[in-house]
Glutathione S-transferase GST-4.5
Amino acid sequence: MTLTLFYRPGTCSLAPHILLTLVDLPHEATHPPRGDAFKAINPAGAVPAMRLEDGYILTQCGAILQYICQRAERTDLLGGDDLRAQAEVAQWCSFFTGDFHPAFYPVFVPQRYMSDHSEAVLDGTKAAGLRLVRAGLDQLETRLIGQDHLVSASRTIADYYAIPMLRWVGLVVETKLAEWPAVESFYQKICTEASVVQTMEIHKITP
């Protein structure tokens, strides 16, 4: 049995799929079964999820990204031997998991958070989520001014984790990333990398 990544196109499962391609780790990538069949694999019913060779199901994007790097002996993507860089990679991954990713939920599925599904209430919920998205982009802009990577002078998993969420910005912000030029430059550059291009083609999506 080989590693099996369960993914859905355009979701945050894009990040570990890119990383598997980048480090050339043998794997299978497949769409998960629907409904209860997938919940039998991952009770949360969410992607990404990765089945290891022994059958264990690893979940949560940050954990999967870290596992892939350690399996491939690519600790440079985790910050290398620099303790501060390692901590910063963990910090930015936590930011994406705990702050930036959840900011999109009220924008995409406002009805999940409100018992009143009137148009005015749902529009207000979307607007509140969008303010959080913009706040996250402001943080990324501050970090990326004058540099091409979130941590250190080379790519880490934090950079690849950012990709699906920065792509979502184009779906919810009319000006896309134009208001955040450093973020826009970062995103445009990373989307030209071979592993990103190849994986987006598999997902049948564009930047």
